[in-house]
Amino acid sequence: MVKQCHVIGGFVALFLLSFSAISYGQQSEPKATQNLTKEIRHQLVLLPYYSVFDNLSYRTEGSKVILGGQVVRASLKADAEAAAKSVEGVSSVQNDIEVLPPAPMDDQIRRAVFRAIYSEPSLSRYAASAVPSIHIIVKGGHVTLVGVAENGTDKNIAGVRANGVPNVFSVDNQLIVNTDGR
User: What pLDDT score was predicted for residue 24?
Assistant: First the structure.
């Protein structure tokens, strides 16, 4: 059985993942599985309250979908589960999405990190899509950057900019660098 894990980011990540899914196990997957993962990704990216401050991921085990990541709104967790269940061919959904606790300081940090990253001239192009490809997850003053950067320099600049924001305790830069040139 093929197990896959996919990270849903902005348009750039959607584009990249539609051509090169992050796979664990076999490299080639059956056409039905490809279509299933493509449709799940499509449904999750279309969620109305999915933003740069959320991180949605999923993996498939046959026709079972396991959702993961972190969201700011509890309603987004439920919406993601409903969206995955609506995909033809999905038999069950395990929803392991973490709802981040409400915290005014974390909200301030989110906005400050957003400004620090997307106001940097070399990174401003990432803000052009409806959901930017660099996602900012904040929990208890700790920042995690997830998504896709076009190159290692952009990844490093984003990490440095996030680390320079006041009241940030740590930055975990998990950005994936697009190495295939797409």
Answer: 36
